[in-house]
Fold this protein.
Amino acid sequence: MHSSVELSPQQKAIVFAENGPIYVKASAGSGKTRVLTERVRFLLGKTNKKILALTFTNKAGQEIKERLSEIEDIEKRSFIGTFHGFCQSVLENHGNLIGYMTMPHIFEDEADRLELIEQAVNQVATYASTYKGMSAKDKKDFRYRALAFISKVKRGLISEEDIGNHTDNENTILLYRNYQDILRSLDAIDFDDLLLCAYKVLTSYPKVARLYQRSFYAICVDEAQDLNNAQYNFLRAVVNPDEPNIMLVGDPNQSIFHFNGSSPDFMDVNFVRDFSPEVIELTENYRSSIAVLDAARKLVPEAEYYERMVKPGVFELHAAENEKIEAEWVANRIFDIVSAGKYDDIEGQVTYERIAVLARNKYLFKPLEESLTKAGLPFYYKMTPGAVKFESRLLYVFDLAMRLKLNPRDDLHRSRLFKELGVDCAEQLHVEDITDLVDGNEMKQALELVLSLKDDGSNLKKCLEEFKSKVIVGDDNERAMVYNDVDELLVHWVNYAKQTGNKSLHKFKNAMALGQTHPLTQHSGVTLSTVHTMKGQEFDVVFIIGLDDETFPDYRAVRKGGVELTQEKNNLYVAFTRSKRWLFATWPENRLMPWGDYKRRSVSRFLRDFDSKKISA
């Protein structure tokens, strides 16, 4: 089956390998998922049978499906998904063989399972009284220990009859049995039971196991360093023993789920012992380009450094006269990159969706948004779900006070407000009572603003604009944050007001909390994102704007120093490594403050050893 994906000789050796067990020992950034995906494509071209591709996250499974989406009937010709998802399908089809006439409900939430532990404890008469006499902390610790033991038993594929060989505590054995009885009474199973029950079906009914073994032409497992005992033994039960056409792909150095009982040994030792696979190493690095990682290493020399990088890439640091020229240059550069379309060190056509612009905080995007709009370039904001986070301390206090005004019983946010204001009082005070206890004119102004708001929000816009014009904040950076916070809150109010006729502050807060008032929520075009929101994501081309000192690093971190400043440097390192190929870093030599004055800036202290070029729009 033809693919247009570019493969290195190392990768081709794996994708087009002969049938049989294969262990791909893949180093970081070497294209593990690409190799697995293209192997599935190749195998589908050789057979009419199905292919089983197992992952550890829904996101990884979805990525593989998307890369193979052009294959006709891909959903019918393969199962691509997580171990738990595949085990669920086994139980849906054959669970009746082990007593489940319909698919049981799955209790995946830890809080639900901890509550079941408590119920189970109370049914163990010999232990219930001891448990009741414990402190709240000891009870909590006990519930977590009990849950860990139950998970260990299930991941170890230990039968109820054999639990006694793993503990000499009769109460623990009774607790396990009661926990399972309660699950059964609720027609439920927990997450660990999915694997245990599916394994029980295959090992107790060889005909069913044979059905699966013959149905799948081959099995491919992604991130196999994260296998645990139950998953590995379930795999062994699914593999056709006559034709063990199975490939495990993983990096022994990247195992991250040890708390789940996983170990790279299941891939590195057990699989090698049980299947005698062909071992192929992937050592080339495609995750980031040489230029990007050289820049990242210059920023944080002690950070992990990948070897055998293949793509040369680009890194450039540019200074602009001000943030307007900075934004215009970025917009023009994006247009030029997409217009040209193809490049030697970037695979495929470069589209707007393969480009991201990052910044330390969301307010830095205002000039860029104007420049992108003026140039007619598509973009959207990658938002963190949930409530709006205010950058300034003053608007944080405003937000806490507003919550208390709308819900006087909200003790959680009342205590946070007291702490932020330095008010030491055990009484259940309301916002109007707190105002007289506060030192500091600007905090009084924030509380008085909350008190002046009408419940229907009809005067919100007017009051916020008056507050912005009158508020007194000594520091220019903090004052700018307050202005920007107010402006953003007004944008959210306008978006909310457009959507509803019957307005209220209470409904407005809920709408913000659910992310219903965020602007520009389409998901196409250039991605604009704060550094914090972009962790775990990568793009072929990345721009980082606003790299002037006291913006990145943030001025508050500069003042505090120590760990705060170290965290800022780590955040910038993360931002650098979001780029796979090309990275452009920019900063303004003058920054326009919200009240109209320009403030002279210097390049970020983290970048003073980097060569910088002057740009113009």
About this structure: The radius of gyration is 29 Å. The first helix runs from residue 9 to 15. The mean pLDDT is 86. DSSP finds 25 helices and 17 strands in the chain.
